Amino acid sequence: RGKVVGNIMAGLVGGIMLARPFSSIVAAGFGWRAVFWISALLMAGLIAVLWRALPDRHPHGSIGYARTMASLPGLVWRTPVLRRRAFYQGMMFAGFQAFWTAVPLALVHEFGMGQGGIAAFALAGAAGALAAPWAGRIADRGLTRPATGAAMAVVLLSFVIGAVSVHYHSLAGLIVAGVLLDGAVQMGQVLSIRSLFMLAPELRGRLNGLYMTFVFLCAAIASGLAAAVYAFHGWDGVSILGGAFVVAAMALYATEFRGRNALATTAR
Fold first, then answer.
1. pTM assigned to the model
2. All domains of the chain, ordered by start, with CATH?
């Protein structure tokens, strides 16, 4: 299961990361509007492919939309693994989004790059997506808890490396920070999804929906904060912001090792 989730997430995050250099190159050559026109055409083609390729699915025992929505708050309350994993990944993804929101500004202001340079940097960062299948195999071996801690530590380290690299104008160091950040966040995502999918199969859709809603809400807030923090405090401020998100996740992670809680909070 972890291997399958890892492969899917590699494609998902790889697409997110490759979209950055693609849009930069298109915008540099044809203007920003061309990005939206090309995206619309790609989506139209994808709709046609999925319409023909996806099998019919007829779920059994549906409780109806209204009752499904009404069950969500209780599901959050009764599922500690969901709360914990959503917070872990929400904080790590917030750091991820803060980095990738502010790093184009830093590349322009600190390194004098244009759209082409930013695209090349984002392309290098996409290498972190390769961590997903590896993370799935780690989870399948029962190493979810230590791998989660390692992922958080690497995210924190990436912000330290990024701060030092910008201070000394080291583009290579900043690339390393981006690759480490992407790989660690990708690992955390795979570990969390796999943990949730180990729970009741009939609840997977709702668990996944609640989890992803919280994670992307954290990312959206972090994106807005990162732009404002960079404007007033520069890259050092963004590094502190991203590090603070991860420290919050690590503080909750530390509670996994308190007596009975160590046995009850993490799906293996």
1. 0.83
2. 2-264 (1.20.1250.20)
